[in-house]
Amino acid sequence: MKTIQINEIEGFQIGSAQDTENATGCTVILCKEGATAGVDVRGGGPATRETDLLNPKNMVQKIHAVTLSGGSAFGLESSSGVMQYLSEHEIGFDMKNIYIPIVCEACLFDCGVGNSKAYPNKQMGYDACMEAEKNNPQQGNVGAGTGASVGKFFGPQYAMKAGLGFSALQIGPLKVGAIVAVNACGDIFYPNSDKPIAGIYDRNTNTRLFSENEILKAAEKMINSCGMNTTIGCIITNADLNKAQMNKIASMAHNGYARCIRPVHTSSDGDTIFAMTSNKVPAEQDLVGIMAVKAMEQAIVNAGTLADSAYGLASYKEITKE
């Protein structure tokens, strides 16, 4: 197994657009030929679009894009711009001279970081598609990761900056990648370890605190805490799998969340993973799932380590220099 660039997975194009002044943005993953897709929503407070149609019992078999967005439920508007862009390029289902693309989306809550009234709108979704044509995606404080933060149990003054990350792996002709925007209530760790990347950070004492421990110590405060969360991501692959199998891939990929984020899948998180495939390469489902977990782990690490300090939030880059 080797590491590859995310844009080496043929059939997909990734682009982001952001409003850095107001701390929000969106990221799109396009598959113009149509992708077989699945989804798994584990968080208790999701803001999503077109997830029901990914149930194997429902009619639609191909989607054309996934949007990952800030702005909470307001950010769902960005997919309208993605739909416009794809329809203008005659991508989607041809229905009496109008092309109707299928665009799925999940949003995170970044409204407490910058301007609370700013969110990714239709134009930003359109702009992200234009950027996707270059297929040269960036990581860190871009797209859906622009206003992302972690470690929020004690409020934003103790939070740290996170962002957008991705990673991709290859075995033979099989390629699997992960894109993620990390905006968790909890902390980011290196996979299967107690080595922290980003979480609760006391700037006054230069001290890291661990969210799970602090939540257990202050259980009575939980009802008023952790309200600005959600980690959203997407697996992309060229494996030839059906709709039911892609739902399983999305489910398995949540193991990557669990290995790197603590706590995760809480009632106030909207943790969601989509999975898309171009159906080009015969592959065994569980192998794809294992690769998806590994790719997601590294994508989460990248989202934590490549983010820059911004909006008054310290980053991993900043505190590891101290």
Number of helices: 6
Could you spell the SSE succession in H and E letters? Answer: EEEEEHEEEHEEEEEEEEHEHEEHH
Average pLDDT, to the nearest integer?
A: 91
The main pleated sheet reads as: 10 strands, mixed
Identify the overall geometry: globular
Strand tally is 19
In CATH, the homologous superfamily goes by the name L-amino peptidase D-ALA esterase/amidase
Question: What report would you give on this structure?
Answer:
This protein has 322 residues and is α+β, with helices and mostly antiparallel strands. It has a single domain, classed as 4-Layer Sandwich (L-amino peptidase D-ALA esterase/amidase). Helix content is 22%, strand content 31%. It contains six helices and 19 strands. The strands form five sheets. Strands 1, 2, 3, 4, 5, 8, 11, 12, 17 and 19 form a ten-stranded mixed beta sheet that branches. Strands 14-13-18 form a three-stranded antiparallel beta sheet. Strands 6-7 form a two-stranded antiparallel sheet. The longest helix has 21 residues, at 285-305.
